[in-house]
Design a protein that fits this description.
alpha/beta, 8 strands, globular
Length: 315
């Protein structure tokens, strides 16, 4: 089912000039004028999205019509059988997982789903998983290892659920157990950040052999607004915080936190979810080819994460 919408109601402030040009193109009957405006639109779009600020990237990652995990899954995988429950306390709709087929290969698919409509977002808790969600993910990680299935993980959450009930249910412990398990999981793990990668809620399913980000996704320790409140006691400094935190794919790639940046269609993944899914599908295919070639090993995964945060003082 096509869930992605576009239009004025989903337009970000810095996109309005582009939308106005699109409206002019749709309204004109002159072929030459339409061609001129189309050329102008393409130039303006290329220039705009090549120079987005970190805060604008944050807005893109949170875009109301940005494709979610369940927009990508039917475009990439065949015959996904969703699995439910953590075999402890219940099921969590914010964390989706199941067994699927990718080019005649069986894989385990796990990820956060924010929902699209208001009703669905409430049901999915806006992608913020509870402890049972992380325990469900852990169960599926272990199942994938037992049956030698590669894991494909979709990260898209502002954070783990911050409520008292989540802490009472063992939120911190559940995420910590996932981190420990992923650091020792003896099956290949592919990770992609498709929107927001927020805090430990994202990291709980994001330790992998090959970690990728879509071009306009973000990966953060906490929201820029919260960072601004902590550091400057002023939420209006959120744009400064976004720059200081290095939240963008480009910055994180330079720091060695992620392994690859996946280009998005002109204007973002929401403009052409089919093309975005095709790019992601091609990257997954390359990853699985590496599995066949023995490219991914547990030792390499552990070494990669051990290198993060290491620096050298020059005196």
């Amino acid at each position: 089912m096509e869930r992605v919408r576009s239009g004025q109601e989903a337009c970000l402030p810095f996109e309005r000039e582009l939308l106005e040009l699109e409206d002019k193109i749709a309204a004109t009957k002159s072929k030459s004028e339409r061609e001129r405006l189309s050329s102008e639109l393409e130039k303006a779009r290329t220039e705009l999205f090549a120079n987005l600020t970190p805060w604008q990237r944050v807005l893109m990652a949170r875009h109301a019509t940005r494709p979610r995990m369940m927009d990508y899954v039917p475009r990439i995988f065949d015959d996904l059988v969703e699995l439910h429950g953590d075999r402890c306390s219940g099921d969590d709709p914010a964390m989706v997982g199941g067994i699927g087929r990718f080019q005649d290969r069986t894989v385990m698919v796990i990820g956060q789903e924010k929902g699209f409509t208001t009703e669905e977002r409430v049901q999915r808790n806006f992608g913020m998983a509870h402890p049972e969600g992380y325990r469900k993910a852990l169960r599926l990680f272990q199942m994938a290892e037992r049956f030698k299935m590669p894991v494909i993980s979709f990260v898209d959450t502002p954070a783990a659920h911050p409520g008292i009930e989540a802490e009472a249910g063992g939120q911190g412990s559940a995420i910590a157990q996932n981190l420990l398990a992923l650091c020792g999981l003896r099956t290949p793990v592919f990770v992609t950040v498709i929107g927001e990668g927020g805090s430990g809620g994202a990291l709980g399913i994001a330790v992998g052999d090959w970690v990728t980000m879509l071009e306009h996704a973000i990966y953060v320790i906490c929201p820029p607004e919260r960072c601004a409140e902590i550091l400057w006691r002023d939420v209006e400094k959120k744009e400064l915080a976004a720059s200081a935190m290095r939240v963008t794919a480009d910055e994180l790639y330079k720091l060695g936190i992620i392994d690859a940046i996946l280009p998005e269609p002109p204007g973002g993944a929401h403009r052409d979810p089919n093309q975005a899914a095709e790019t992601l599908r091609d990257e997954i295919a390359r990853f699985l080819q590496g599995c066949d070639e023995g490219k991914w090993t547990l030792e390499k995964r552990q070494a990669k994460f051990k290198r993060m945060g290491v620096w050298r003082e020059i005196r």
